[in-house]
Design brief:
By secondary structure, the protein is of the alpha/beta class. It contains 19 helices and 14 strands. Strands 1, 2, 3, 6, 12 and 13 form a 6-stranded mixed β-sheet that branches. A 4-stranded mixed β-sheet has the order 8-10-7-11. The relative contact order is 0.16.
């Protein structure tokens, strides 16, 4: 996704005022999409006219939608198949709720859906298995992305965008303070951030910060905290064998270290930050930022005060190595689509090499094909993408969405709330980890246990 929003509403907490409002909003979104589909059906041409597909996208920024419309127009010119891009809510929580509602209603739903990597098992039953149709293309994708879109040997979606947590850093400031390279470990980052922050504030930049990240109790914090603990050997919250491993000394120490950052090298308000907040502070004045590759475009935009003064690298390592949380977007075909053959062709087109190359060049969207990270047309406008390929090689960590399925939204929310309580000082890390462990047992019914040996995936 890129993460940044809470998971969809569960029935047990619909009674709150906020969730009632969210539920009403989600119902409204469903009505808008269904009305769009109904109007499309009413105006649908006779059978002999070209097929019209409907596409509901997971990523819905204004710039992306405009570029997507151009891609769809080119697809129509090549195939004669028309595509209607449907409206979608902005919130990731509302998106997933809308997807589930539309898929459950059955008939007249969209033909193709955008799918976040953490939605695969949740939505699995509603989509065609794409493996028989994409034999050659599958081997060209990042293996970790293919695995994230697979359930029991079924390929639920084809990726068109790769995402992984990365470290942004100010190249000019590192040189000024005598550093030849970005931090290799979290401890080095803490030392470097403190020194640069002190030096910049001594110049009168009182709002300058050493390190910004996403600390709000949302999916974004789940990604950040998982990186901290996985790199220290603290596990993946819930292991692939369904062991709840979060209550361990390495995870606890990782949380404690992050709590120490708050108010020292990170802003006191970082506990409320999502991606956009961290980006704003980074551009205004910070030495380091954890964010997704797409933050490169805004950092390098015309008029940005840090334009050409920063670079991207892999996240720092802990004692177990490096771990960047895997994200990304893919496309799946509804099993109820009236035009599955045409829908498959649309997915094939949008994930095609030349289409991904142009998308990367125009929108700075990281491609899902490793080979494109050696292509000048991709790396030219996006030099930081070389580090994304490196991040896949040095180690990535996946959220426990496939092992928990429909329960993942509750698991992620519980985890983010527990870590957030440590960041704000509401609870001690050991206390929060023990309480979270019991809560995850209640949510999943899984057993408690230690983390497995290094589970970080590599290219």
């Amino acid at each position: 996704m890129p993460p940044g929003d809470r998971p969809p509403i569960s029935k047990r907490n619909l009674c709150s005022r906020e969730n009632r409002a969210n539920y009403v909003g989600m119902v409204g979104a469903v009505c808008i999409v269904l009305l769009s589909l109904l109007l499309e059906g009413c105006t649908r041409p006779p059978v002999h006219e070209p097929v019209t597909l409907t596409l509901l996208e997971e990523w819905t920024t204004k710039t992306f939608n405009e570029a997507r419309q151009q891609e769809l127009q080119q697809f129509t010119r090549e195939t004669g198949i028309r595509v209607k891009l449907l409206p979608s809510p902005e919130s990731a929580r509302e998106k997933l709720a809308l997807w589930q509602e539309l898929l459950r209603t059955g008939a007249s739903g969209p033909d193709v859906y955008g799918i976040d990597v953490i939605w695969t098992r949740i939505l699995n039953e509603y989509f065609l298995d794409l493996k028989p149709y994409f034999g050659n293309e599958i081997s060209l994708q990042f293996p970790a992305l293919t695995a994230s879109y697979s359930v029991d040997n079924k390929l639920v979606a084809i990726a068109y965008r790769a995402d992984i947590g990365l470290l942004f850093y100010r190249t000019d400031l590192l040189r000024e303070y005598g550093y030849r390279e970005p931090p290799r470990t979290w401890d080095e980052l803490e030392i470097m951030a403190a020194r640069i922050q002190a030096g910049e504030r001594a110049k009168g930049k009182k709002e300058f910060w050493g390190f910004v990240w996403q600390g709000g109790a949302t999916e974004a914090l789940t990604c950040n905290a998982l990186e901290w603990q996985a790199s220290e050997g603290g596990g993946q919250i819930i292991e692939k064998d369904q062991t709840i491993s979060v209550n361990n000394p390495d995870a606890i120490r990782a949380w404690q270290r992050a709590a120490r950052w708050v108010g020292s090298i990170s802003p006191p308000g970082v506990g409320g930050y999502v991606e956009a907040d961290a980006l704003n502070v980074w551009v205004a004045g910070a030495a380091f930022m954890r964010n997704w590759p797409t933050a490169f475009a805004d950092s390098q935009a015309a008029g940005s005060p840090i334009r050409n003064r920063f670079d991207i690298t892999v996240l720092p390592a802990g004692k177990a190595g490096r771990a960047g949380t895997l994200g990304g977007a893919g496309l799946g075909v509804s099993r109820l689509s009236a035009h599955p053959r045409e829908a498959i062709e649309l997915v094939r087109y949008l994930s095609r090499r030349d289409v991904q190359t142009k998308r990367s060049r125009v929108l700075s969207v990281p491609p899902s094909l490793p080979e494109l990270y050696d292509v000048p047309d991709v790396l030219g406008p996006n030099p930081g993408f070389a580090m994304l390929r490196q991040a896949f090689r040095t180690g990535i960590v996946s959220r426990p969405s496939n092992v928990t399925g429909n329960k993942y939204p509750d698991v992620s929310e519980a985890y983010a709330q527990a870590v957030h309580s440590v960041l704000t000082g509401e609870k001690r890390a050991a206390e929060a980890a023990a309480a979270l462990e019991n809560e995850l047992v209640r949510i999943t019914g899984f057993k408690k246990g230690p983390p497995q040996a290094d589970q970080r995936a590599r290219e």
